[in-house]
Amino acid sequence: MSISHATSTATTQTMIICVPQEIPSTALTSRQLDRHFGVTGSTSRRFWAGPKLRLWQKGHIIDPQKGAPVVCAGGPVRLLDLAGVVHAAGIGAGLRYQRYAQLAAGTKPAIPWADMLARHHADPERFPLTRAKAAFEAQPRVQAILLHNAASYTPHDRIDLAELGALQAGHIAYQHYKAMSQICGDALLTERGQQLKPASDAIADQARYLEQARAHLDSLDPDTRLLAVTL
pTM for the full model? Predict the structure, then answer.
């Protein structure tokens, strides 16, 4: 997380696109995203193909990678193992939460950056951005995470401070947050061109988005194609 982010809108790094039927599968490449969806980015291997995928069905999977499971950027809902992706993301989140809990032990709950930023926007003269950054980083729990991240050699070992609100919601809540985020991304573009996204990075807004996005995914026809994009 970069606390230089000074806008109150939600951070959007990944988008899940529900692909309209009229767009051919051959157009679902990084070079064609702007033309067909008005977004600039690259396809992202965020999903798994179903374990019973047959050889003749592999042509419907978007950007597959060899292995078991087959990691891919998307495909028809009926050919994706969304439940498996959710389960795996939840397990990974549980392990990450254990590391966070060790770091947070003995420290008071911290005000997440999204809330600190909202306070800045509410009164920028009395609470300028530099003061907001200083106040955020002065919190012992944040300092513990910053020190841990400084000593970590790989990104996988680091704790994302942007997820502090979800982490402080508890072990199970954090697992649900990461599991749903894996299939819903930070924003969702429906097959009718409507964009769903959180109002801000605050955990309450994130939770409302995930509920809305998951409901939309659950309502899709099994033949609807999903495409994951990194913006």
Answer: 0.92
